[in-house]
Amino acid sequence: MAVDRLIWKIALDFFVLLCVAFPLLGLLLWAEPYHRGYFADDYSLRLPYKQQQQLTVNAAKYVIGRLRPHFFDLCRPIPNSSSPLNELGYIQAYTCSGASAAQLKEMRLSFPSAHASFAMYTAVFFIFYIQVKGKWRGSKLLRHGCQFAALIAAWYVGLSRVVDHMHHWSDVTVGFIVGFAFGAIIFVYVLKPKKYGMPRSWETGPPEMLPQPVMSR
């Protein structure tokens, strides 16, 4: 029956969401990002720390463990001079003398920028949707203006992460690329614009343009 198929589909969707949610929850509660070292003369890590309200984590951040631009200001590292790991100016064995454990964990999650990725994903999906799926009866300039505003908003989010010293410019760039790719992929393979196609001109035109039925003799 149709009701049984609907219940089965909802249960399957819920199971898929759980499969995605549990690994993310595990990363947040138990995983530790890779402890990457630093160069003592790396001035890209000496920017001051600024407070933020949102904590964003994902698998790539934990695997790479890139240090944020405010590393020195937040960590205040004390190198272990007797460690053989600290060679050629690259300090890998050190102890942070400042900040809390949560701040130190967040400090290693710079790459890529999840804010930039999500902002670009949202903008790209919105732009494609109103361009292909929307039956636009108004001004085309207004539609393109809305698309441009969405793109500028995503661009602003990425720039704000650099200005706030939360990410390097390369983190934001990769975040934009990932967001654009996923926005386009989700739109193409979920909404399937090729299956339904662009709205034909007579669908959005005035009533007099609609095709008239052919009377049988």
Protein traits:
217 residues; mainly alpha; 2 domains; two-stranded antiparallel sheet; 9 helices; 5% strand; membrane; PAP2/HPO
Please outline what is shown here.
It is found in: Membrane. Helices cover 56% and strands 5% of the residues. It is mostly helical and 217 residues long.
Counting copies of identical and different chains, the oligomeric state is single chain
Strand order within the widest beta sheet: 1-3
Main beta-sheet strand count, sense and barrel state = 2 strands, antiparallel
Please state roughly what percent of the residues sit in beta strands, choosing from under 5%, 5-15%, 15-25%, 25-35%, 35-45% or over 45%: under 5%
* Overall strand count: 4
Rg over CA atoms, rounded to whole Å, is: 25 Å
Residues in helix, %:
55-70%
Number of domains: 2
Low-confidence residue ranges: 52-57, 199-205
Mean pLDDT: 74
Order of helices and strands: HEHHEEEHHHHHH
Distance between the termini: 42 Å
Give the CA-based shape: flat
Number of helices: 9
Coarse structural class:
mainly alpha
Task: Report on this structure.
One of its GO terms (biological process) is phospholipid metabolic process. GO terms for molecular function: phosphatidate phosphatase activity. This protein starts with a helix and ends in a 13-residue tail after the last helix. The protein has helices at residues 2-29, 59-64, 71-75, 101-107, 114-133, 140-163, 169-191, 193-196, 201-204; strands at residues 38-39, 77-79, 90-91, 94-96. It has 217 residues and is mostly helical. The model is unreliable at 52-57 and 199-205 (pLDDT under 50). The chain contains 9 helices and 4 strands. The strands form 2 sheets. It has a two-stranded antiparallel sheet with strand order 1-3. The chain has 2 domains: 31-107, no CATH class; 114-204, no CATH class.
